[in-house]
Amino acid sequence: MTVPSDPRPYLNQLISRLTGRGGDFEITMGDVLGSEMPVMKNRDRAVADLLSQSLVWGDREYLVTWERRISFAEHAREAYALAAALRERYGVGVGDRVAILSANRLEWVTAFWATQALGAITVGSMRGGCNLRSNSGSSIPALGWSSLMSHAQTPSSVSTRTTRSCSPSKVIFLA
Questions:
Q1: Is residue 28's pLDDT more than 80?
Q2: Which of 15, 41, 45, 119 fits a 20 to 30 Å CA distance from 26?
Q3: Cα distance between residue 143 and residue 32, in whole Å
């Protein structure tokens, strides 16, 4: 087999097969928030769709750390349980901004997908010592991970944590 000296024609052909008419990633023009732009024809409409679609992978490993292994099914169950707790107990819903204050860990991923399942917006935040205040100036309660997951149906304790101002409506603090 010979390798072409210039791979660009091969790459262009490959991209055309993938994104052209009938390709798995076909690109068409579509409306996005009132603007016409190139979009994938067969795309999901919301990030939350990915969580429900991950259930087809069942007991296959989703995330692995030194301490724990979690399957796609287990992750989805935890994310949906946390989403229910956030919605029922704390009123998190579509369009709410939720800051997750945590190091990189499995619980951060679960909290992210729980907010996505509700149609909420996960906002970037940094651990820090500044006061986190709502637009009205009142302190915002941080939702502790232990209380959320140990009582996913009805979490009972709320602690106050603070960080730099990013104006979320809710904060999840993973201690």
A1: yes
A2: 119
A3: 33
